[in-house]
Structures are given as structure tokens and as C-alpha cells.
Specification:
This protein is α/β, with parallel strands linked by helices. The protein is built from eleven helices and 17 strands. About 35% of the residues lie in helices and about 15% in strands.
């Protein structure tokens, strides 16, 4: 029996170190900032806090952040170095029902949204959280005199586009089916974006929107609805890697350290009243992603695809055009897909989330 060799360096710390000297840098714009953050205990929020506090400590930014958390005790158990950091103030509450702070904040980041396997178990509740929760956080930002507001949206606002559209641009007018209750998340994000545009127009709150696509990296859940996480789970368990569908849909994956960089830059440098795609434009089919994951092991792991592709059927594709973020903000996908896979596998092995009977090939 072989085991996956533990990486010799701490993947997370190496990632965070890379972000200290990256250009364009968001850090000087955040010097002395007082930030309010929702969704800080989620996947994206975790990365935002890890990166901010790492930079805060090493660059002496003197930044503080108030994090809205429904279950502070659980967060203190899962991420004590974040929850207990002296620059962090925990505000216990829920964006729909709790009294939000009546304080001054220079920056507000709204990232909170229901997530996990049961995300759409109650479509009406999900829709209400996305709309009314966003409105309440926008009101907090207006009261607090915030100079910047970032809404973290999703590429789901474009609906499902066919492969004939190679990449989707921010001015795309395709949309989800508004008469399908399964579109509750997609339509909720669209309506929340409109709220941001209205608050910029009518209340002069400088709102900017980031539409995020698929991601890879440390902290990615392995048992949720993320294909990449499921493949890593299967791989570290020894395989086979299971593709539930026919493997033809195409996606692209931005490394989570890159996503944190993108979101901080969009917050401080993005043009108010504008949306930016946040993702990689390196397209890959789900089946190819499974093959690349399998190839990270020696010997390569077996793959099982649930069903054959239908003849003549155009595959779905969700790949962003990132030209606007590149030309206007200088952003790009630093970590390419194969390296993102390697780092993500190494990190999950490092924290010993699961066991493997295979070894890495490189």
C-alpha cells in the first residue's frame, strides 16, 4: 500500500505569501480600512479573511474587520486563528432577522448566501435571503458612510449557455428561466445586482459587482455540489473518479487564492455601477477535469462516466470572458488548471481529510 506523500511546504501559507507582492495590489488601498463582511465563514469569505489578515499582519495595514456570523462558537472551533484575531470583531446575527451594526465602515463586502447540499431545499427562502438580505446590507453600507461596496454575485446570472458561445461577456443578455423555481438562486443574484445598481444611482453608494465562476483550492468542500471537489474526494479515496453525467459540460476553474486577489482588487479599484466576471477562461469539460485529476496519481486512477453523450446534443458551457477584468484592472488567472489541481490535492492531503492508496506522479 502506498500513501500520498505530504507536501514539504504549507500550501496555504505559500499561497498567502504570493499575494503579498502581487500586482496590481489591493493592500495599500485597505490600509487603515474598517471593513464589514457578511459570509465570512463560507468558502469565499474564508479566503478573503485569510488573505486580508495575512497581509494585515505582515504589511502592518492596521485594518479591522467586523464579521457577521450566525454561529460564532462553531466558527471559533473551525477557524480559531481567524475568529480570535485581534483585528476581527464578531457580530453574531443573521442578515434577515438580526439588528446589524450601526457603526462607521469604510468598506462593505456582501458575500453571504445559503450554500451547501441543501441550498435550494426551500427556493422561496433562498430567494428572500438573496434579495432582502442584500437590501439590508446595502442599507447598512449607506448608514455607515461606506466608500466602497462589493457584492459577490455568480456567473449563474447568465443562465445556461450553449457551447456555441465560447465565453460569456458581462453585457450578455441571456438569462435563467424565470418561470422555473430551480432558477431561484440565479434570479435572486440577478435581482440583488439590480439593487446594487439602484443604490449607486439613487443613493450614491459606490457599488461594484463580481460575478464568480467555478473555483479550485484549499477549503473547497469535497461533499457538496462541486464536481471538482467530488473528484478530489474520489481520488484521495483511491478511485474510481465518478462523473455523474455524460461529462460534456464545460467549465473553467479559478484558483481560490487568485479569486481572493480578484475580489479585493475589484472592491478597491473596480468602477462603481459595473460588474466584472471573476474566473478563469481556461475551458475544460467535466470529463477532462476528471482525467486531469486522475493523472495526478501514479498509476492514474480509473474513471467512471455515468452515461454516454447524446449524439447531436450541444454541451452546456459556463466559461467567462475575463477581458474586462484584465484590461481595466490588470487581473488574470495566475495559477493554471493543472497546478491548481496539484495544490488543491496537496492541501487536502496535508490536512488529512481523507486517505489514499495512491501516490502523486509529480
Amino acid at each position: 500500500m502506498k500513501t500520498v506523500a505530504s507536501p514539504s511546504t504549507n500550501i496555504l501559507n505559500a499561497d498567502l505569501d504570493e499575494l503579498l507582492d502581487i500586482a496590481p495590489s489591493p493592500w495599500e488601498k485597505l490600509r487603515g480600512a474598517r471593513i464589514f463582511l457578511t459570509g465570512g465563514t463560507g468558502l469565499f469569505g474564508r479566503w478573503m479573511l485569510e488573505s486580508l489578515l495575512w497581509a494585515n499582519d505582515r504589511l502592518a495595514l492596521k485594518t479591522s474587520v467586523t464579521v457577521l456570523a450566525r454561529d460564532p462558537k462553531r466558527w471559533q472551533q473551525t477557524a480559531p486563528h481567524l475568529a480570535g484575531h485581534p483585528a476581527v470583531d464578531i457580530c453574531r446575527g443573521d442578515i434577515l432577522r438580526s439588528t446589524l451594526p450601526n457603526e462607521k465602515f469604510s468598506h462593505v463586502l456582501h458575500m453571504a448566501a445559503p450554500s451547501g447540499p441543501d441550498q435550494a431545499a426551500d427556493p422561496l427562502k433562498l430567494f428572500n435571503v438573496l434579495i432582502h438580505g442584500t437590501e439590508r446590507v446595502l442599507d447598512l453600507a449607506v448608514r455607515s458612510g461606506a466608500g466602497r461596496f462589493l457584492y459577490v454575485s455568480s456567473g449563474a446570472v447568465y443562465g445556461r449557455h450553449a457551447k456555441a458561445m465560447s465565453v460569456v461577456e458581462e453585457n450578455c443578455r441571456e438569462a435563467p428561466d424565470q418561470m422555473d423555481p430551480a432558477s431561484c438562486y440565479d434570479e435572486g443574484k440577478r435581482a440583488a445586482e439590480l439593487l446594487c445598481a439602484l443604490y449607486w444611482q439613487q443613493k450614491q453608494l459606490p457599488c461594484v459587482v463580481a460575478r464568480c465562476f467555478s473555483v479550485l483550492g484549499p477549503f473547497l468542500p469535497l461533499d457538496w455540489h462541486y464536481a471538482a471537489g467530488n473528484f478530489i474526494r474520489d481520488a484521495l479515496a483511491g478511485g474510481p473518479i465518478k462523473v455523474n453525467g455524460d461529462g460534456t459540460p464545460e467549465r473553467s476553474y479559478l484558483y481560490l487564492a487568485d479569486l481572493a486577489w480578484w475580489l479585493w482588487v475589484i472592491l478597491v479599484h473596480g468602477q462603481p455601477g459595473r460588474a466584472y466576471n471573476a474566473g478563469s477562461d481556461e475551458a475544460v469539460s467535466i470529463a477532462e477535469l476528471a482525467r486531469r485529476t486522475a493523472a495526478c496519481f501514479t498509476p492514474p486512477l480509473p474513471i467512471h462516466v455515468a452515461r454516454a453523450a447524446e449524439a447531436g446534443r450541444t454541451p452546456q458551457r459556463q466559461v467567462p470572458c475575463i477581458r474586462k477584468a484584465g484590461e481595466k484592472l490588470g487581473l488574470y488567472a495566475r495559477v493554471r488548471l493543472d497546478e491548481a489541481l496539484r495544490r488543491t490535492l496537496a492541501w487536502h492531503n496535508l490536512v488529512n481529510l481523507t486517505k489514499s492508496s495512491r501516490s502523486y506522479s509529480g
